[in-house]
Write a structure and sequence with these properties.
Elements (H helix, E strand, L loop, with lengths): L9 H12 L13 E8 L14 E5 L7 E3 L4 E7 L7 E9 L28 H19 L3 H17 L5 H12 L3 E7 L4 E11 L2 E10 L4 E12 L9 E5 L12 E5 L7 E12 H6 L1 E10 L7 E9 L3 E15 L8 E2 L5 H4 E15 L13
Parallel strand pairs: 2-4, 3-8
Antiparallel strand pairs: 1-5, 4-6, 5-7, 7-8, 9-12, 9-17, 10-11, 11-16, 12-13, 13-14, 14-15, 15-17
Length: 383
């Protein structure tokens, strides 16, 4: 039975690693870099409004200061603005970007005039609900007249309680109260946030010399991070083996001349592996960071920058600091010049540089890389 060298299995293992790394469950497809933004001016009654917020809603309450970034899951949301003044003009800008690469906003003005509120018709009232209707009308007027967003939430709650009591039977007044409540809320839009994106909503109100601005950022967190590790790489010459030649002196009388001649002879090299210290840059998706175990993609460079060695391949990572990679390496190898071949008889004693040229060739590699805090291959002088 023919023996199979373990080194012959490295290309097969490399292909298997590539297959695992590209599995849909593990691969983190980076969202296409894009930005979606809108900018519009909203008056008292414009925009799509609702009293009941739909599910998966991101609320922005103008009654409280908005500073910190809120972390949310990657899904589709409706952004809802709350506690806005009824009859004031707001400028709203919503920008969805893919982080960490910033994208340019695309303004899309959409100024819509305020919808008029129908005045309450003088329906006949019973004495029983006259007081309730007067109270409701006063509350609605207070809600319309307030000039501080911080007061809107409390006044809106009182109006809702009055409506829930169902004491006022003036249908026109009740409709007016509901319309005013609707105008304290505004659906900014529907946005789908993918992993590695953030939505920034900026709301501005200008009233005379007073200008107020609210900004809220919703982030799904980073898609992943680049991690640096130092690799102990082993290259096997399965595809291309470096062959070095030299000029071996021949006995007198060999060849067509009477002087000393030389035969181009190949050096014997029984090395099956070549060691190459390197530095690796590995993309680790957020899902792998959370689980501690998974696959990523790595690119690496050898420390000899005069004749750089380049590595690329899938990587199995274990809790960030331990990584095993397998893939393809491009490296310089010495190749016999085309005008010579093994066994040629020459008259000059040519040295190695006169017999060879450098070419980049590809071979498989396997490496173990560790997340050291500093370069372990760097020579340090003793103090």
């Amino acid at each position: 039975m023919k023996n199979t060298s373990p080194l012959r299995l490295i290309p097969t293992l490399t292909l298997l690693c590539w297959g695992f790394a590209l599995l849909p469950a593990q691969a983190q497809s980076a969202p296409r870099s894009a930005a979606a933004s809108s900018r519009r001016s909203i008056g008292g009654g414009s925009g799509k409004s609702t009293l009941l917020a739909p599910p998966d809603t991101l609320r922005i309450d103008l009654a409280v200061p908005l500073t910190a970034t809120r972390t949310v899951e990657d899904k589709t949301y409706v952004v809802l603005l709350e506690s806005k003044l009824v009859d004031q003009l707001y400028t709203i800008s919503a920008q969805l970007i893919t982080t960490p690469i910033p994208a340019l906003p695309l303004p899309n003005p959409n100024n819509t005039p305020s919808a008029p509120i129908a005045a309450a018709s003088p329906d006949k009232k019973d004495e029983k609900d006259e007081k309730a209707c007067a109270k409701l009308a006063a509350l609605v007027q207070d809600l319309r007249n307030t000039r501080q967003e911080a007061d809107v939430s409390g006044l809106s709650a009182v109006v809702r309680e009055a409506l829930a009591a169902d004491s006022c039977k003036d249908n026109a007044l009740v409709s007016k109260a509901k319309a005013v409540l609707q105008r304290t809320r505004l659906v900014v839009g529907t946005y789908t946030l993918k992993k590695g994106q953030q939505l920034t909503v900026v709301v501005t109100r200008q009233t005379g010399d007073e200008k107020r601005t609210w900004e809220q950022v919703f982030s799904t967190g980073p898609r992943g991070t680049w991690e640096v590790s130092y690799g102990f790489c082993f290259i096997t010459p399965v595809f291309n083996k470096e062959e070095v030649f030299f000029a071996a002196a021949q006995p007198a009388g060999t060849g067509t001349t009477t002087g000393t001649t030389y035969r181009i002879t190949k050096e014997r090299d029984d090395r099956r592996l070549r060691f190459a210290p390197s530095i690796f840059f590995t993309w680790v998706p957020t899902s792998v960071q959370a689980n501690g175990v998974g696959f990523g993609l790595s690119g690496g460079l050898g420390f000899d920058l005069v004749s750089p060695t380049v590595f690329f391949g899938p990587t199995f990572t274990y809790h960030q600091n331990l990584k095993i990679s397998a893939g393809i390496v491009g490296q310089q190898q010495r190749v016999l010049l085309g005008r010579y071949k093994e066994g040629d008889i020459i008259n000059d004693n040519l040295n190695e540089s006169q017999l060879h040229e450098d070419r980049y060739r590809f071979n498989p590699f396997i490496s173990l890389s560790l997340g050291f805090s500093q370069n372990p291959f760097e020579r340090r002088t003793q103090p």
